[in-house]
Design a protein that fits this description.
The protein is mostly helical and about 120 residues long. The chain has helices at about 1-15, 20-30, 35-45, 50-70, 70-100, 105-120.
């Protein structure tokens, strides 16, 4: 459930502006403000089914954008690469401070350079 909520939030963050005003409003009220279908329907003078249809259609539209554009997938991969870079840099820093004369860090530097290349290719 939490995973779905996070995923819907990410879809909305990346592609929400591509929805109509009504779709954006109902989606936001339901997924972000945690209002029920009935509460939204009552507030806007429509049926519960109408609210459900708008939200369901919005979810499909957002998922379709992600399927075609893959911005969330790309973003997630870039975050993973950055985390790997950060860990590698921390490890390298530790190695350099403890044994600077042996040069065991050269292989790790090459690995970091490869990660940087992968990261920049995704842009």
């Amino acid at each position: 459930m939490i995973e779905k909520t996070v995923h819907m939030g990410m879809l909305f963050d990346f592609y929400g502006q591509l929805l109509t005003d009504k779709q954006r409003l109902f989606f936001s009220l339901y997924h972000q403000d945690d209002l029920s279908l009935g509460e939204i329907a009552e507030q806007y003078g429509v049926t519960r089914q109408a609210v459900y249809d708008v939200i369901r259609r919005s979810q499909k539209i957002l998922a379709n954008f992600e399927e075609k554009l893959g911005l969330i997938q790309r973003y997630t991969r870039q975050r993973e690469l950055v985390e790997m870079l950060q860990t590698g840099i921390e490890d390298l820093s530790e190695m350099l401070s403890s044994e600077p004369a042996d040069r065991p860090w050269q292989g790790q530097v090459a690995d970091l350079e490869e990660l940087i290349i992968q990261l920049t290719e995704d842009f």
